[in-house]
Design a protein that fits this description.
By secondary structure, the chain is α/β, with parallel strands linked by helices. It has three domains: 36 residues; 202 residues, 3-Layer(aba) Sandwich (Rossmann fold), CATH 3.40.50.300; 187 residues, Ribosomal Protein S5, domain 2 (2-Layer Sandwich). The protein is built from 13 helices and 21 strands. The strands form four sheets. It has a nine-stranded mixed β-sheet. It has a seven-stranded mixed β-sheet with strand order 15-16-14-13-17-20-21. Strands 2-1-3 form a three-stranded antiparallel β-sheet, with no helix packed on it. The longest helix is centred in the middle third of the chain and has 18 residues. It is globular and about 80 Å long. Bound molecules: thymidine-5'-diphosphate and magnesium ion (MG). Thymidine-5'-diphosphate binds next to helix 3 and helix 4.
Length: 485
Amino acid sequence: MAKDRTRHVCQACGAVHPRWSGKCDACGAWNTIVEEAIEARPGPLGKEVAKGVGRAGARRIEFVGLQGQSAPPPRALTGLAELDRVLGGGLVPASAVLVGGDPGIGKSTIMLQAAAALSRAGRRTLYISGEEAVEQVRLRAGRLGLADAPLALAAATNLREIAATLESEDEAALVVIDSIQTMWLDSLDSAPGTVAQVRASAAELIRLAKTRGFALILVGHVTKEGAIAGPRVLEHMVDTVLYFEGERGHSFRILRAIKNRFGATDEIGVFEMTDRGLMEVANPSALFLAERRGNVSGSAVFAGIEGTRPVLVEVQALLAPSPGGSPRRAVIGWDSGRLSMLLAVLEARCGLTLSGNDVYLNIAGGLRISEPAADLAVAAALVSAATDQPTSPGAVFFGEIGLSGEVRPVSQPEARLKEAAKLGFREAVLPPKPARQGAGQGAKGRAMQTEGLQLAEIGHLADLLARFSPQRRTMRAPAKPGASD
Ligand code: TYD
Ligand code: MG
């Protein structure tokens, strides 16, 4: 076997190709394929087994039954409640967490805050920065008021040195590596940041975390395409993947669990970036609604669920006459395909024709919503914009809309209503109770949770249009099909 062979690896998805090409067949990315040297691995297992070497010396694995108890892993609370919640209740020892996000979004800031808080709680915490010099990290710590935290800080990128150090760590509860893209193994020829380096460095660090028992946090940058550079490979290797998101122009940041072997996914933590670092936002709804101005058309409040938590957000729609050609559909924070569907349903089932208009849709504050339950709120914002009438003040909306215009039940209506009531809303426009729900169960729960909240159950989009005064409607009479469910 030739020693100096190379292979071609896509830096976006890690797929290996026999030769260079402009486009990766596996993930469709362009110009991501890079030639990398194939590393001569020390002692490939295949060869050893074939030769019979190692078989004699290796320890046999032990099989067990499905019964028996293992205690839930004791967790280390970082002291940032929002982070702990997204992690599923704190850091799990001997686990690996990947924290991804755009450059400059605040990954280093939140990790420094979490690490400092954990060290203050008396747990040994190591922070290894590969991007910033010790002085820079100290400066930031000073600004954040963390300078007195007993955190062990180092600037290092050579994984051989880092591994040797961690190998002799008995006490460490948490090791933060900021970032995995700067780490490199001198046994590999590839440059730091390449798939080969990132994968090998992460594998080594994860192995150390498992054997030495510390929680490992790997910070990873996301490329323009949205994947952590190289490291879609990393998502498989770690136990938990968190993404730190936010719009540049907005001060709040959302930490989202994408994968979690020790907790729920789709859980979010909300932070606000201030000059004293990231502050936890205990009541995100209040923050998302802070800039809402009542009594304007084209706005509706959606009572959503993010992870396990209800979150209220404002949906804004703006219609403008289209200057001809194909009208514009610009969407921020929601799915544009879903908007097209809603516009089609509004036209076909309710006679509200918006095809001559440019449609702009925005989830205020920069939150990204993926729940179909937002359909009704989006429709309300659109109808409000089309009729130039504000939605009823103090009303929230939720419900999924089907192709025949029917409004369908969504999950956790009680939690949504409770949050709306808590924030002073007085009315909820929502789907009818599911018909097949067990005897009065839904009704009972709803009646209990909704003191002071008036419920307007609507079964069809036409019922939504009926809430806007007819004189000022600019559309044909709604053609409501007889049987909608
Ligand atoms: P940083 O944590 O360095 O981002 P990342 O590690 O994800 O690249 O955050 C950098 C940004 O955060 C920078 O633009 C300045 C801002 N920032 C604040 O607004 N307040 C603060 O207290 C700190 C430390 C940073
Ligand atoms: Mg950073």
